Amino acid sequence: MPAPQRRARVGFVVVAATGALVLSACSGVKGGSGPAGQGAPAGGNTQPAAQGGAAGGSAGSGSAAPGSGASGASGAPQFDQNGFVVRGPAAKKGGTVTVLGSSPFSHLDPARGNDGNVNNFYNLIYRGLTTNKRGPGDVGTETVPDLATDLGKPNADATEWTFTLKDGIKYSDGTPIKAQDFKYGFERALDPKNNIGNDELQQLIVGADKYKGAYADPKGLDSITTPDDKTIVFKLNRPFPSFFELTGSGPLTPFPKGKVPSADYLDSNVYGSGPYQLKSNNPGVKVELERNPNWDPATDPTRPAYPDAFVFQFGIDGSALDQRMLAGQANDKNVIAASTDPLQPSSVGQIQNPQTRSRIVRDLPSCTYFMNIRTDVKPLDDVKVRQAIQYAVDKQALITAAGGPQMALVANDMLLPGVPEKEDFNLYPSENSAGDIAKAKQLLAEAGVGDGFELSMDVRGLPLWQGFANALQDSLGKVGIKVKQKPLDSSTYYDVIQTPAQQSPIQVTGWCSSWLNGYPLLSPLFDGTRITKTGNQNGSMLNDPAINKRFADIAKLTDADAQNAEYAKLDKEIMQLAPVVPMLWLTPLQTVGSNVGNVFACACTTGYIDYSSVGLIDPGA
């Protein structure tokens, strides 16, 4: 069994309830990446105080205490030196946890959804071959078996991987989960209607990039075989020693053939394998979950499944949500603010009270917010124009839009802090990162567009994002670039901007990954061979032959350290082409009610509070 890879991560300090100090600065590597997402502290800048908690084991099952061996497992809450929660008090079984948010889930289908909030939700109702430990700090970066018995067995060159399933695993209707279900689940995920989410597996499994899905081609992929009901074998198109890091992603969720009659069936129906099942679904308004009677906690040591039920309510105004969460009155003591709804910048001034801070979790750093610049649209196809935009952006204005220095730091490149071999550099410097208007105007004049031009910009319909859009609009206006904002519905935002025929020339977006490696952080965004008509992650449409070759050459390396060093160099090479403007690494604040326990920011959910770990301190309250 291959051991989880370990990588250095930024350090953090936590203060337990007794006042003892605990330090951890080690991290594992987690598979999976996707759109933002909440942020990360910037490399080369002063680390904001306290980013996580003490290391520990995975959460227990059933009524067992979470975090076997973890600091805080006894129930004593932990706080960072600013008074924010690192790990909340212990939870008990029972009761209902309510999650309030402004935006509904993008998709109930795990093949389609790929934003941080919906992936967090999927952990409640779906399982994969592998998953990640639950816990604060570096705990959540370690991959562990889920429905499989181990992390898979590779052949000599890691181009073939074999997984064996656990005994006693079932769907919510009692049907046994078989190896063939993983093959079918992945093949249905490749249908053009479904293939709009995470595409990492599609890039690796032989023939998956050409396959049109199970509904069009029921024969399926020859590169995935099932010798028996308990065994599944994957053949890859290149060596990939950390393949087990990807086998818990949404497109590989198992489903039995014949139970999912159409490509869009799972967006209104849930055929789950996790600790909860769908009780009701009022799209855009409310989703209710209840316990899955066929979930066996003995097979699932990572999800404690404390609550009897979850209720997700949508459409709540962000400002109103903040006020409810900060007040924490009546039934709101059993409530969590959704992953997509951290405290708004305008509310940050209301959290000076230590009692209030003791109900606020600071998200872990695992996302970069940035602006895509389409390299295939005039005049943006001129690198000087794109470089001018880099100089024009006032990143201090973006810091202000995020809520101030305690909420964000400037990002100058696309590799998260903690990535091995990462170099700190800034190709487009300005005093205090406030922009260099003169340099920007000079480059625009050299490109023949000194008189300015107009652009439309896609922005997600969330207050934080619109604050970013306003700051970017002001910055570009100072150099003669008139920006017209195009606000889009939050729940369908990525569907639009990941469809090149629909996206604007520039887009405010973000990318998250707690798998600290250049492959998930750079390849989906900048490898031109991965551009697709739908589900396209390369929003800048960068298709540079030299960059594409660099990705291909790095993929052939079998030494992890050598790969890391090359990705660090490639990061700088990409930034020289200026296809994106890195903006910020964020550490947003997520609020919970006073009766919600076992809360922590988890790398397993790209830095959010992990829904599958929380419960109520007093289920009867």
Automatic annotation (TrEMBL):
The lineage of its organism: Bacteria, Bacillati, Actinomycetota, Actinomycetes, Nakamurellales. The keyword Signal applies. PANTHER family: ABC TRANSPORTER SUBSTRATE-BINDING PROTEIN, PERIPLASMIC BINDING COMPONENT OF ABC TRANSPORTER. GO terms for molecular function: peptide transmembrane transporter activity. Residues 143-531 form the Solute-binding protein family domain. CDD domains: PBP2_clavulanate_OppA2. Keywords: Signal. One of its GO terms (cellular component) is ATP-binding cassette (ABC) transporter complex. One of its GO terms (biological process) is peptide transport. Residues 43-52, 61-76 have a biased composition (Low complexity). This is ABC transporter substrate-binding protein. Pfam families: SBP_bac_5.
